[in-house]
Amino acid sequence: MRAGRRLPGQDADLFSALDEVKAARGAPLAARMRPRTLDEFLGQEHLTGPGRMLRRVIERGAVPSLILWGPPGSGKTTLALLIARATGAHVEPLSAVTAGVADLRRVVQEARARRRDAGRRTILFIDEIHRFNKAQQDVILPHVEDGTVTLIGATTENPSFEVNAPLLSRCRVLVLRALTEEELTALAQRALADRERGLGGLGLRISAEALTLLAQGAGGDARAALNALEIAAAQVEPGGEITAAHVREALQHRAPLYDKAGDAHYDTISAFIKSVRASDPDAAVYWLARMLTAGEDPLFIARRLVIAASEDIGMADPQALLVAVAAQQAVHFLGMPEGMYPLAHATLYLATAPKSNSVGTAYFAALDDVQRTLNEPVPLHLRNAVTGLMRQLGYGRGYRYAHDDTPRYPPATPEEAMLPPPVKLQENLPAPLRGAAYYQPGRYGYEARLRAWLARRRADVPAEEP
Predict the structure, then answer these.
(1) pLDDT tens-digit series, residues 161-181
(2) Which H or E element spans position 27?
(3) How far is CA 299 from the centre of its chain?
(4) What is the pTM of this model?
């Protein structure tokens, strides 16, 4: 059962309400199969296993305020309910989607009276706490600090960004993981066998292929696995077998875990760019497909490819930027779904191109010197002499026009003829920076040519200009 406002006309004991829901005819399988004890709880062994921190504090009845951070279906709400039940605390469930400041103040007032009159602790469980704004979180803070309520917040988003620092510092953050295929398999088998709360009364069997498909297709989400199992079971007569076709039909409309403003958005684009940078075309095109399937903005992906073309490939393959920009223009022109072709084209080109970060390295090395030499004058020979006074002061004197100079080194190969002559006609940096070498070509792709050319050019330093 999803936590929300207190049910009207009932005592605030969440568990009596929960038990009624489980017992109700037609309740979803995921609600009926919610674990009643820690021993029934599947997954999160790093938190609830024997001797682990959370189990120890629960057994001692000294649970601190907690933020439970994990993907959907990992057991955040269930774990909060089990903690409250094990410690004998009163639970006030709120959903950050529907609750406001007035609800929080009511809970605090009742918790204070409950502690005074009955000596009973109150656990304030806030589902989707990341949806509370700063003002709402500030209302909770002093009452968490003085122990009026013990806060347990559940969130799918990184609490470092979504929970105020003062409140976060007073809570222990527990990270829940997506369930493994083995755990989801065990969960499905338990639901099929359970005659009291599950599907045991139907005498159903499930093929090994169907069970594997269910565990893989649920994507680590226990709720999704049980929902799909229930839909698949509804297609089979009592005593029959659930096949892969039944499971495939049950899973086909499942939405991917992706929030274009949340962790999944940033984590997936990070995986995409890092796969391109690592020259892994298979991983890169996989993450591209993941983003497009989830409905990511294709122009956002194209912008990231344009950045990667200069940041991670740069002069090792100057064509990479042209390909990336062309992909952006093509996506803008075509729209989706056809825009997937130029995006995949650019992804594979960039992933298989030689890599160099010399563009950024050169820029930031130069930027460091810019910060030190902001007031250095432009050398006189590089200035425009547009008046007689400027010419008298030496503006433009000694400037050597590159097109008028005959190269001292004829090109040795056709490839070398594609580069400027390796001749340094004059010094073009301010005097304190003469000889600075910001650009360091890599050893791969086009930069392998530039490396030898630039070494010759930098060695050919003329005498100081008059």
Answers:
(1) 888 888 888 899 999 999 999
(2) none
(3) 18
(4) 0.62
